[in-house]
Design the sequence.
């Protein structure tokens, strides 16, 4: 029998249902795991995505896109295929796509993380035969601390920066991590300001009735005195640009899983690096895979070769799949929407 | 060790020199003097012998982390730092154990003599009692390669500020063959006079590259101009009836160059000469490649002494008749040096000839032919200059010849280390031989971070095949490779070896088929090899 999902040059394809999942070339029907730019691309004739992904997709891909919304767990029939979305814990609206026909079940997990996040629904393991997994942090050195500890570090750095009379600039991509930080920092320390690219996403989410803590957009009129002691959230691409001149004297920090490794921390040339990721760490990947009960693991973007060899050694039938998905920080659009 | 680990974190968390200096100062203010001397030793690369072979550390760490060895190796390759890989891969310690840096160092020194099983027991048990940060520092104490972003200059500045002494005096105190096991902080740093160690070298004065036209320097007559010899920088110390030879890397290399033992009789006591250690056939300096045969060798065979005879080309005199000459003008030191060389009448001790040409245009023409003299260009030294400490702008300039260049196609890529750990930044380049691409060099540097990111993205999308950590990629990108020299080599498949190859620019204007050919490379070998 033909496999339920196949890997085509356009993306992951379901022949029986005649649709793609997170395709990277224009196709007639695309099921989208989440709204980051490398998974949710423009040019598809029709989209299917979680309700919470749609406002950001419309904002980024155009208000005229044709898109059908679905809730978590809701089953949609396409020909004789059942399609349903399940929380991936990556960012707001992020979903694993479960595809089932007869007794065969595949799960495309897109990007996911297993740890908690105040800005989205927690990851939910889905039983399947074939699991398509990312491997962004598929090496045993990537082990995340509990997020409370990381936010304690961030709060301490913010307070200390404030005591020095400076602005605390934290770099995090504008969809997902920016809101995660906003919702989790101790906002009694001071006010939170945002770069335009972050504020645009905040606005879209607020319009869609999501509750976010108050933020103020930094504009040309913003006086750098107002920013003293404040926390500023900006996308990583803002560091080193003239935009930072608006901030006056500041201390910079990058929030990313890559900050676990000293060399990568130094490459970013920020004052501080906080290990905070929207992707699963090594234990997270291993636990998630085990929880699916799947025998066949298809490893996409990340340390694909190493991670699939490790899975093979553990007895899985693991293969590497070439895709065009990026890893952490690669999924930020290179041009920030607005300054 | 906690204070030292804290210093490490503080230095690591900032890129700003002032913050680093402050962290060092506060360490020296708080630290026990025994720990302070160890800190200075580690920051100046005076580490005791490695007590354990590193492959064993790989095995023990993989075992403690309950992962297969191959996975450890792959992970290490990505992280790029063994000490860090181990500290990240091990499970979090449950109990903590406090010891001073001095105690740890003494334990590690005594560990060297123990049986393998005892070494393993000590190291794995220590691992399980340290926080991640301390574990990283502990591993660094074993493996060495302490790069804490503290240059010798900044360490010197911090110690000068801490003790209220002059920076140059501290720099001088830190030189030489002292060991933290046998000296004290008081003797090395705080004593009245600089330690009377007969072998203590002076800090080297280093030249800045000249990027402007030389005419900005005024009249050539204000400058002493010499060839920039292509050997290794050395300092010859003849004191107390003994001879010491130091390389610029602060390595004592007296035994490697037995030719120089004649200086014991030809040069008078209380003399320190700055010059180039270089292979020379009696008529002219030889190619750097000849000296390379000598650099790694501790013992020298008679055959090697014949094949690669070493001489010293002297260019400065730092001490004469026991007196420090560094403050007197360059041309006075030069006059005394000429006397010393003449009186020595030693075939191993040559003087660096002065290039006397009346104007910059003629000097430029002379410089252009430097390769024929096995020289790297010209050195310009202001006649009135004192001998300074470290790299200082203004009085000493190196005016190097333009590098050789060739356009080559990128065909293999490997992930980088350290700062570049998740990017493909280590490249292999090839030139055309008919329709085939022949790899001839690797190059790691020369692109900006932004360019590396773009090339990395290209590589990930254009991979043809993978061999372990290496990817072969579609031969589409062309880069200009700059290098200082080219030699025939039977160790390389292409038959050539380049000196200091690096990427000088990305030829985005050139399609792959317009890159240079193997024949072009051979022509360069014939012209310059």
Sequence:
């Amino acid at each position: 029998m033909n496999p339920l999902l196949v890997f085509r040059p356009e993306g992951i394809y379901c022949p029986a249902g005649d649709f793609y999942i997170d395709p990277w070339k224009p196709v007639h029907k695309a099921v989208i795991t989440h709204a980051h730019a490398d998974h949710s691309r423009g040019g598809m004739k029709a989209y299917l995505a979680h309700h919470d992904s749609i406002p950001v997709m419309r904002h980024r891909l155009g208000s005229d896109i044709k898109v059908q919304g679905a809730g978590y767990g809701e089953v949609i029939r396409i020909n004789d295929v059942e399609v349903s979305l399940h929380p991936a814990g990556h960012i707001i609206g992020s979903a694993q796509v479960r595809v089932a026909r007869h007794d065969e079940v595949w799960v495309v997990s897109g990007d996911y993380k297993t740890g908690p996040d105040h800005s989205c629904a927690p990851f939910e393991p889905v039983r399947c035969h074939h699991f398509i997994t990312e491997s962004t942090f598929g090496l045993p050195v990537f082990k995340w601390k509990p997020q409370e500890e990381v936010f304690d570090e961030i709060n301490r750095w913010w307070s200390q920066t404030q005591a020095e009379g400076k602005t605390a600039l934290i770099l995090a991509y504008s969809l997902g991590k920016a809101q995660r930080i906003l919702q989790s920092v101790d906002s009694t320390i001071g006010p939170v300001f945002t770069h335009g690219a972050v504020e645009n996403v905040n606005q879209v989410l607020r319009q869609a009735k999501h509750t976010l803590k108050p933020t103020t957009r930094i504009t040309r009129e913003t006086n750098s005195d107002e920013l003293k002691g404040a926390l500023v959230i900006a996308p990583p691409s803002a560091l080193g640009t003239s935009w930072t001149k608006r901030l006056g004297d500041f201390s910079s920090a990058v929030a990313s899983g890559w900050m676990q490794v000293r060399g990568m921390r130094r490459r970013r040339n920020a004052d501080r690096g906080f290990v905070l990721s929207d992707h699963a760490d090594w234990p997270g990947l291993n636990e998630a895979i085990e929880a699916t009960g799947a025998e066949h693991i298809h490893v996409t973007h990340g340390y694909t070769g190493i991670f699939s060899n490790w899975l093979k050694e553990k007895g899985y039938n693991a293969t590497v799949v070439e895709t065009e998905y990026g890893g952490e920080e690669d999924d930020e659009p290179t041009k920030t929407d607005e300054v | 060790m906690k204070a030292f680990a804290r210093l490490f974190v503080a230095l690591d968390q900032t890129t700003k020199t002032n913050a680093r200096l402050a962290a060092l100062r506060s360490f020296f203010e708080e630290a026990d003097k025994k720990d302070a001397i160890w800190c200075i030793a580690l920051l100046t690369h005076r580490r005791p012998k490695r007590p354990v072979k590193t492959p064993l550390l790989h095995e023990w760490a993989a075992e403690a982390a309950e992962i297969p060895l191959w996975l450890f190796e792959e992970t290490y390759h990505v992280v790029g730092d063994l000490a860090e890989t181990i500290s990240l891969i091990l499970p979090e310690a449950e109990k903590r154990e406090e010891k001073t840096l001095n105690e740890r160092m003494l334990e590690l020194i005594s560990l060297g003599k123990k049986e393998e099983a005892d070494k393993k027991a000590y190291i794995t048990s220590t691992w399980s009692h340290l926080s991640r940060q301390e574990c990283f520092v502990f591993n660094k104490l074993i493996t060495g390669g302490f790069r804490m972003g503290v240059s010798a200059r900044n360490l010197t500045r911090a110690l000068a500020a801490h003790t209220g002494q002059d920076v140059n005096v501290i720099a001088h105190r830190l030189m030489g063959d002292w060991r933290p096991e046998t000296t004290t902080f008081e003797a090395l740093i705080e004593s009245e006079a600089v330690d009377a160690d007969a072998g203590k070298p002076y800090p080297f004065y280093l030249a800045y590259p000249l990027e402007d036209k030389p005419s900005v320097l005024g009249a050539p007559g204000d400058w002493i101009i010499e060839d920039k010899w292509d050997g290794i920088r050395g300092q010859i110390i003849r004191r107390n009836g003994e001879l010491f030879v130091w390389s610029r890397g602060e390595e004592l290399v007296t035994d490697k160059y037995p030719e120089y033992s004649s200086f014991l009789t030809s040069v008078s006591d209380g003399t320190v000469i700055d010059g180039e250690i270089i292979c020379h056939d009696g008529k002219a300096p030889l190619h750097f490649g000849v000296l390379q045969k000598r650099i790694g060798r501790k013992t020298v065979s008679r055959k090697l002494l014949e094949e690669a005879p070493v001489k010293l080309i002297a260019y400065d005199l730092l001490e004469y008749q026991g007196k420090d000459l560094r403050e007197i003008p360059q041309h006075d030191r030069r006059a005394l040096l000429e006397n010393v060389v003449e009186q020595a009448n030693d075939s191993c001790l040559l003087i660096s000839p002065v290039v006397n040409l009346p104007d910059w245009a003629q000097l430029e023409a002379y410089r252009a032919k430097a390769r024929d003299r096995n020289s790297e260009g010209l050195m310009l030294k202001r006649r009135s200059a004192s001998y300074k400490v470290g790299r200082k702008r203004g009085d000493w300039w190196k005016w190097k010849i333009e590098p050789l260049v060739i356009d080559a196609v990128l065909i293999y890529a490997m992930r980088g280390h350290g700062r570049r750990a998740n990017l493909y930044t280590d490249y292999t380049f090839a030139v055309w031989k008919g329709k085939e691409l022949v790899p001839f060099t690797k190059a790691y540097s020369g692109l900006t971070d932004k360019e590396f990111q773009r090339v990395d993205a290209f590589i990930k999308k254009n991979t043809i095949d993978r061999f372990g950590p290496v990817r072969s990629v579609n031969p589409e990108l062309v880069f200009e490779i700059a290098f200082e020299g080219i030699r025939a080599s039977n160790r390389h498949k292409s038959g050539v070896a380049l000196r200091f190859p690096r990427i000088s620019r990305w030829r985005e204007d050139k399609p792959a088929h317009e890159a240079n050919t193997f024949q072009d490379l051979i022509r360069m070998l014939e012209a310059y090899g």
